[in-house]
């Protein structure tokens, strides 16, 4: 039941961000799915491994692949799904506490929280890089097959 609640809350938050970014209404559900899926991947990996950085890397990679697949299927830019979906993974609290400890003068906590936040941000960056390193042709495999079949059928006529 906990996973279902996590999924619904993440999807709702992601749809709200997508609305804020003026995403087309017909894409809101898919944006919500991208954020919910990335959050569930993060939640499960973090729960099983206890490694927040690895969880962010895995979730961002899955999100990027999912966004690219949606982009092909829905004929939209991948950034529509990626930007709204990444919202659930951004370490906003980490940035807040890093600045809080800096202002408070607690250097040890500042360094610790700042390093953790930086590692999470790098994991997000590398997850996106790894997701975009997959060749574009793999995402167009089923659409190219349909186009080739249509071309062959039209030549028969």
Polypeptide structure, described:
By secondary structure, the chain is mainly α. It has one domain (2-140). The chain contains eight helices and no strands. The longest helix has 26 residues, at 107-132. The radius of gyration is 19 Å and the shape is globular. The chain starts with a helix and ends with a helix.
Q: Any key phrases for this structure?
A:
8 helices; about 160 residues
Q: How many individual domains?
A: 1
Radius of gyration: 19 Å
Tell me the series of helices and strands, N- to C-terminal: HHHHHHHH
Shape: globular
Q: Please, how many helices?
A: 8
Q: What is the first-to-last residue Cα distance? A: 55 Å
Mean pLDDT: 90
Largest sheet: none
Q: Which range best describes the helical content: under 10%, 10-25%, 25-40%, 40-55%, 55-70% or over 70%?
A: over 70%
Q: How large is the share of residues in beta strands?
A: under 5%
- Poorly predicted runs of 5 or more residues: none
The secondary structure category is: mainly alpha
- The total count of strands amounts to 0
Can you summarize this structure?
The protein has helices at residues 2-20, 28-49, 52-74, 78-85, 92-104, 107-132, 136-139, 141-156. It is mainly α and 157 residues long.
